[in-house]
Amino acid sequence: MKPEKYTIMFIPDDESSSKSYHLSKTAIQTVFFSVIVLLTCVFGVLFYYVPKMADYTEIKDRHDQFATERLKVLELTRDLERMKQMDKLIRHSLGSKLDFDDRPVVFDSITNAVSTGGNLVSFIENIPSIAPIQGFVTQRSGKPGLFISETHHGIDIVAKEGEPILAAASGVVVYSGWNYEFGNMLILYHGDDYFTHYGHNQQNFKKQLDPVTRGEVIGLVGNTGVSSGPHLHFEVWQEFVAMDPLIYFPEYRATDLTSLHE
User: Burial code of 163-200, b = ≥16 C-beta within 10 A, e = fewer?
Assistant: First the structure.
């Protein structure tokens, strides 16, 4: 005859009174099957959700990679739009058609001089080669500025307000005016697809279409536009590509304050 009840007894080591519990066979079977069902449910949930968690991690990694690539695309799009705007500005300033690709005949291979209607113009004079001001570099190319989240296409040079700004090369003024970001701004075209930008000026001395010579004073250092203090925002562009000004002016490396934080 099978027992209908089972007794579980607990006997302590200190010889105190023991305790016993009586459990029916049905109760034991119920507990046993409940444990089996619970374990089955737990393993079922793990079997179903563990692969889902792995898929979620993979999808999240792909999303993060996609977001990073999308930000890069947006930055490139902004750069392209800025180049289009600059191209439109220059074409509006100088005319509807610019034949910059037509290279004149070089008459002097040493100085790279060409004839322009009886005058000799040297492309050596038109390559950025004179530092616009003396000062300390506080912002480098390729990094967002303090107030501007877009890529920084140049260097910021801190100097005293009112310091004269020199033309980095000979050329012609294609823009002289004011905009929200750079305040009073000058853009010079130097030939051979070279442009230089001078921003945050206190005052512009040159007007649109004025010719300039290398080293000529074209404005004064200021604090106009989106600026945290008196400084010159200086850019060099070649074939509508932003260049690092330190390539042309390595002397600024000696006063580059950003290198102290690298």
Answer: bebbbbbbbbbbbbeeeeebbbbbbbbbbeebbbbbbb
Q: What is the pLDDT of residue 73?
A: 74
Tokens of 260: 């102290």
How many folded domains does the chain comprise?
A: 2
From 41, 63, 98, give the residue that closes a domain.
Answer: 98
C-alpha 57/C-alpha 178 separation (Å) is 49
Return the ∠ at Cα 219 (arms to 124 and 229), rounded to 5°: 115
Q: Which two structure tokens, joined as six digits, stand for 253?
A: 């490396």
Query: Can you read off the two tokens belonging to residue 85?
Result: 């705007």
Smallest CA-to-CA distance from 148 within 228, 246, 253 is with 228
Average pLDDT over residues 196-215: 94
pTM: 0.55
Mark whether 121 and 93 lie in a shared domain: no
